[in-house]
């Protein structure tokens, strides 16, 4: 379990207010639809890597008819997900687990699909986590992810001042890959049919709407949830995010790959 959780209560309240109850990534249920586009998960076993508050898992169970196991290193997030699963009557089909960083605590070839929304963004050892995703997938199974990434021309370079300022305001750990690096890693690990799609234009418009709401119509509601100091911080945080998104220094990317029906090595 994470000794010092990065997602404190004020941040969780704010993210749910903006992105929807139980969600910690942009797009809410729409994000799940993008993750599962053209994939049939009904009746299948799905692993949610970095499950957060459980929103995507509940959506996959309710709307897509799958069984989901989610895990996260932050015990408070997992506790929230477990409580909500009980409230929603989904505990028999949505289960959650606290894990330590490192190898997944699941048997090889035990899931039909692996999904992840924003979690791999924060993991330095991306090859290691993708290898684990490959290992726990049954032959023919799919990995599908949503991640924040850095632009291609920054590969191997330091971040610019705007990105560094946004990182400071976020206060979270980020290890951003480029889309081409993500593609290469998926292929190196052994995935086939790899697809990597930059959908940043959508979020460049969405993040401006979010900033407008935080600094406008949602401002009084935020003040009810947290201190004025925290509200000021999050408003500035979102302003900084608008900047890096509009300058295309930070991207929103979907990627996926299939474990071969019969492994090639």
Task: Map the helices and strands.
Layout: H1 9-19, H2 29-35, E1 45-49, H3 55-64, E2 67-72, H4 75-87, E3 94-98, E4 111-117, H5 126-136, E5 137-150, H6 161-170, H7 179-189, E6 192-198, H8 200-215, H9 219-225, H10 228-246, E7 250-258
Parallel strand pairs: 1-2, 1-4, 2-3, 4-5
Antiparallel strand pairs: 5-7, 6-7
Helix pairs in contact: 6-10, 8-10
The CA-CA distance between the termini, in Å, is 34 Å
Note the beta-strand portion.
15-25%
User: In angstroms, what is the radius of gyration?
Assistant: 18 Å
Main sheet properties: 7 strands, mixed
CATH architectural type of the domain at 19-152 and 174-200 and 249-258: 3-Layer(aba) Sandwich
What strand line-up does the widest sheet have?
Answer: 3-2-1-4-5-7-6
CATH fold assignment of the domain at 19-152 and 174-200 and 249-258? Rossmann fold
N-to-C SSE string, H for helix and E for strand: HHEHEHEEHEHHEHHHE
Question: How much helicity do the residues have?
Answer: 40-55%
CATH superfamily of the domain at 19-152 and 174-200 and 249-258: Vaccinia Virus protein VP39
CATH C-level label of the domain at 19-152 and 174-200 and 249-258: Alpha Beta
3D architecture notes:
The chain is an alpha/beta fold. It has a domain at 19-152 and 174-200 and 249-258: Rossmann fold (3-Layer(aba) Sandwich), CATH 3.40.50.150. 43% of the residues lie in helices and 20% in strands. The chain is built from 10 helices and 7 strands. It has helices at 9-19, 29-35, 55-64, 75-87, 126-136, 161-170, 179-189, 200-215, 219-225, 228-246; strands spanning 45-49, 67-72, 94-98, 111-117, 137-150, 192-198, 250-258. A 7-stranded mixed beta sheet has the order 3-2-1-4-5-7-6, with helices on both faces. Helix 4 (75-87) links the parallel strand 2 and strand 3. Helix 8 (200-215) runs antiparallel to helix 10. The longest helix is centred in the C-terminal third of the chain and has 19 residues, at 228-246. The chain is globular, with a radius of gyration of 18 Å. The model has no long low-confidence stretch (mean pLDDT 91).
């Amino acid at each position: 379990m994470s000794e010092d959780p990065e997602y404190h209560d004020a941040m969780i309240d704010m993210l749910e207010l903006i992105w929807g109850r139980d969600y910690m990534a942009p797009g809410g249920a729409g994000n799940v639809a993008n993750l599962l586009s053209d994939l049939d998960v009904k009746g299948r076993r799905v692993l949610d890597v970095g499950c957060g508050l459980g929103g995507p898992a509940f959506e996959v169970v309710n709307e897509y008819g799958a069984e989901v196991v989610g895990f996260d290193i932050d015990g408070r997030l997992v506790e929230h997900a477990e409580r909500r699963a009980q409230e929603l009557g989904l505990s028999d089909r949505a289960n959650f687990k606290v894990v330590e960083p490192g190898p997944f605590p699941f048997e090889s070839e035990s899931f039909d699909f692996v999904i992840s929304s924003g979690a791999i963004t924060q993991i330095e050892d991306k090859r290691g986590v993708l290898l684990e995703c490959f290992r726990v997938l049954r032959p023919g199974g799919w990995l599908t992810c949503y991640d924040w990434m850095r632009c291609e021309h920054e590969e191997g370079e330091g971040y610019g001042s705007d990105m560094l300022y946004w990182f400071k305001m976020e206060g979270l750990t980020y290890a951003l890959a480029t889309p081409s690096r993500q593609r290469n890693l998926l292929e190196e690990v052994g995935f086939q049919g790899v697809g990597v799609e930059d959908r940043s234009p959508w979020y460049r418009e969405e993040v401006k709407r979010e900033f407008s709401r935080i600094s406008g119509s949602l401002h009084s509601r935020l003040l009810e949830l947290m201190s004025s100091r925290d509200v000021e911080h999050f408003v500035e945080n979102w302003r900084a995010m608008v900047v890096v998104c509009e300058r295309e220094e930070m991207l929103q990317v979907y990627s996926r790959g299939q474990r071969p029906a019969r492994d090639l090595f």
